TrEMBL record, chains A, B:
InterPro entries: DGOK, DGOK_C, DGOK_N. The keyword Transferase applies. One of its GO terms (molecular function) is 2-dehydro-3-deoxygalactonokinase activity. Keywords: Kinase, Transferase. This is 2-dehydro-3-deoxygalactonokinase. Its EC number is 2.7.1.58. It comes from Rhizobium soli. The lineage of its organism: Bacteria, Pseudomonadati, Pseudomonadota, Alphaproteobacteria, Hyphomicrobiales. GO terms for biological process: D-galactonate catabolic process.
Length: 313, 313
């Protein structure tokens, strides 16, 4: 077995996920616990929560360095790490880290989130996605999308993240399908395939020439009129709305200047949503650039490597 | 007191509202009951529910005619009245009514809803708003907006309703402020004034030149980034989101071709939302045409009058 060299934490509100990795980035072991989630840690006892989860790794391999990202770096976390302003690359992100030393001597490095002060109407923020973007690659100019509850569209230019914009697509999807009158959807059976025909119908309308597709507040009502018209079956609603909101995200990102027909975009992460985004991209005449499957881990290691270079330099 | 000549019903899912009116449209008496709401009427006992609410009026004034609109004309109501297709004016709406005779000999006329078969991506529908539009006036070509949970934008041309489009603005507002992570808002204190500065900030962004304002899925995230940036107080969120979604409805209606800067629009109804829509209209360079305060009642009477003319003709 390669020698363990560091511990990487994805430490969020509801869970703590830890990976023991080798120098070359190979994952040697993992721990995944909900009891370590920030909301369950009392009285700031984060070090105890960390030791409970990964103490055995320290015992076996010594006080190896820990690299932490996620909401653990927010106001409600262990220490609040200020956002680094766009544009920012490896150097700026590494300079924005904060470190503490544990009782056993191990150093924990907390990675910063990013802020785009040029975003309208207010500065936009992200925490974690910037690390995935770094792991995807800052080597060439390109546009990236990171699907999620709060999707990000980001632009990489000259080796730095030049700017980004959040789209609350996943959250709007959940609100519509769980709580609305117009698009409440049944839960799909576990393991069932998406109803791609319904998905494509929604995405296809969002990508169409119809002027009504620019009216998102109206387009969402089509989940209801589609059923009334007998075109959508009740079981179609969830995937129809999924296609409609993801397609609308692309349409709106185009209007806001994030994409141009004929370009290639990177779809970052290995989220289950990525297959849906990959299906929509060609409707907007976009090619898809392949990327690494674990961009987050790669990004953490690149930022940590940069930090080491800086400290040694 | 003028002589009672008819009973007008606004009969919906959750309530039954009845007005006793004179020949000239004066309201002489009203009844408002939730127990008559369609969802509370068992086994189709609509006639009994009606008699319980307005039986005393029949006793006092004879078997005067009844004019009913609302969800009572839908599949879950008393009788389902088919939608009348746009374009449609008084003649088409009157021809689309359905009548039944009560045990006491009174005739109940059910008014139809309307369907726009040209709407994208599916035919759009409304039930009740067409009657308000008739009451507002079909005498000149103009664009009308009817604020609500499911707002309608409609175009009157050549004495008929030429077409319309639904915007689910009120429902999206409720979802965002009640159920979302990004814009959950506190309930305003009863009787408190709207926070107009926050409302204007949201509406102002929606009306601005910023390309990001074309990205509704992103704009809604600004309720969160505005708080993070220290620009919005937690108590501002509800009115900020209200301004943002109503402003976005205007912006999207402009993109979809319903309004042009420099025109006048009518804002139909006496909904509490109307003051908010009136505040947004000038941001889009629109004048506001005054209209009657009770367009619904006026519309019912015009359609009933047309029906009488037709039957006599």
């Amino acid at each position: 077995m390669p020698e363990p060299k560091s511990i990487i934490l994805d430490w969020g509100t509801s869970s703590l996920r830890a990976a023991l990795v080798s120098e070359t980035g190979e994952t040697l072991d993992t721990r995944d616990t909900t009891s370590g989630g920030i909301q369950f840690v009392k009285d700031g006892a984060f070090e105890a929560a960390l030791m409970e989860t990964v103490g055995a790794w320290f015992d076996a391999h010594g006080a190896i360095p820990v690299l932490a990202s996620g909401m653990i770096t927010s106001r409600n976390g262990w220490i609040e790490v200020p956002y680094v302003d766009a544009p920012a690359g490896l150097a700026e992100l590494a300079a924005g880290t904060r470190q503490i030393t544990l009782a056993n001597g191990a150093i924990v490095t907390f990675l910063p989130g990013m802020r785009d002060p040029a975003a309208q109407p207010f500065p936009d923020v992200m925490r974690g996605e910037e690390t995935q973007i770094v792991g995807f690659g800052l080597d060439k100019n390109r546009t990236l999308v990171l699907p999620g509850t709060h999707s990000k569209w980001a632009r990489v230019e000259n080796g730095r993240i030049a700017g980004f914009q959040t789209y609350a697509t996943g959250e709007i999807f959940a609100l519509l399908t769980k709580h609305s009158f117009i698009a409440k959807a049944s839960e799909p059976a576990p393991g069932s395939e998406p109803r791609w025909e319904a998905f494509d119908r929604g995405a296809g309308f969002a990508a169409s020439d119809a002027r009504a597709a620019d009216a998102f507040l109206s387009a969402v009502f089509s989940a209801r009129t589609g059923v009334l018209a007998g075109v959508l079956a009740p079981d179609d609603i969830g995937d129809y709305v999924s296609g409609l909101v993801i397609g609308s995200e692309f349409r709106q990102a185009r209007a806001a200047g994030w994409l141009k027909p004929g370009e290639a975009i990177g779809i970052v992460g290995n989220n289950v949503l990525n297959s849906r985004y990959s299906r929509v991209a060609p409707l907007f005449d976009l090619d898809i650039e392949p990327g690494p499957t674990d961009a987050a881990k790669g990004g953490v290691q690149l930022i940590a490597g940069q930090l080491q270079l800086t400290n040694e330099g």
